[in-house]
Specification:
mainly beta; 102 residues; UDP N-Acetylglucosamine Acyltransferase, domain 1
Length: 102
């Protein structure tokens, strides 16, 4: 996991985060009831994103700045908005640098 800028990041303890996840400043991954998100490998989460409740974010996903994620996001997608939706499937994990390789 990589936190790209100094600044507050809030992560619920029930969150599951895969390899090579890049969190930007002011990201909140939370849950009001039950468990929080499951985040796949090679995921970029832009500044000021909120990931709310028990959602599944697939592998190789880019989430644009200021997005509010309330539903599952599929593998290999670029998503953004309030509420986040898939914009395209064009090179979504391009912002993940220095990937950990076993």
């Amino acid at each position: 996991m990589y936190i790209s800028h100094g600044g507050p990041v809030v992560i619920n303890p029930s969150t599951i985060i895969g390899d090579n996840c890049n969190l930007s400043q002011f990201v909140t991954i939370g849950s009001n009831e039950g468990k929080a998100a499951i985040i796949g490998d090679n995921v970029y989460i832009g500044p000021s994103c909120c990931i709310v409740e028990d959602v599944v974010i697939g592998n190789n996903v880019t989430i644009g700045a200021g997005s509010v994620v309330t539903k599952d996001l599929p593998d290999n997608s670029t998503c953004a908005g309030n509420y986040a939706k898939v914009l395209n499937y064009n090179n979504p994990s391009r912002y993940i640098q220095n990937k950990y390789l076993e």
